[in-house]
Structure formats: structure tokens, C-alpha cells
Predict the structure.
Amino acid sequence: MTLPIDPSQLTSEDIGEKRATLEMDHEDAVEHVRETFADAGFGVAVEFSASELLNEKIDAGRDPYYVLGACNPAIADRALDATDNRMGALFPCNVVVWESEPGVQEVYHVSIMKIARLVGMAPDDETMEEIVADTGELVDEAVANLEAA
């Protein structure tokens, strides 16, 4: 299958990639991420331990890995309107936390709003640009606050 875009040409900025490293144990990091994103205007709609699930189901032997499905309801509502409801297929905005070594946690997020525009699920117009900017500001605030702690 030939992709319509060349992924090697995409930058971190193109997909809204954000990263942070936290020096704390895994459970504390998950709670810190949850609280920090809540302070920035996101609720956590769904969350689960992918590592526990995979270790239980297929004996994967994974180190701690947790998924927080964050959502800002006002922006989610705008995104649904702007995309004829298609954006819901990418909801919620996931923030993942994984243990890279004992006492060191990596936090990772990509912008579903930017990715939706890249793959044609969302229009490339002013309305969507405002939605991308608004979510980007909230995520930037959260990541900056993660790293400040």
C-alpha cells in the first residue's frame, strides 16, 4: 500500500508531538499527569493500564505503561461540528505515561486535531485552525507544568 503522504517528511510539529520526562515512580507520574492536564482544562474521560492488560492477556512482560484519555468538552464539541462528527473516531486525546527505567517516566502526546487535518478527516480551514491552536495552547500549558514540577 502506498501512503498518500510520506511519513518521513512529517516533523514533530506537524503532528503536535509533545514529550516530558518525569523523575518519579510510575503511579505518582500517572497521578501528576492526570492532575496537570485537569488544571489545564482537560478531563480524563477514560484511562487504563495497557501494560497490565497485555501482561494479563498475552504475558507480554511489559513495563508500566498507562493511557489517559484526556478531553476538553468545549473544544471536543467544536471539533465534532467542524468535522461533520468524524473527529469522534479519534477521541479522546491520549496522553501516555511509560516507565523507561525505574523512577523515570516518559509522557507522550500527539495532536489528534493536527493528525485529523493531515489525513483529511478535518478541514484545512480557519475554524479548524482555531481549534488546533486552542488545544495546542492547553497541551503546551500542561506539558510545561509537568516539567516545572
About this structure: Residues 126-148 form the longest helix (23 residues). The CA atoms of residues 76 and 91 lie 8 Å apart. The first strand starts at residue 18 and ends at 22.
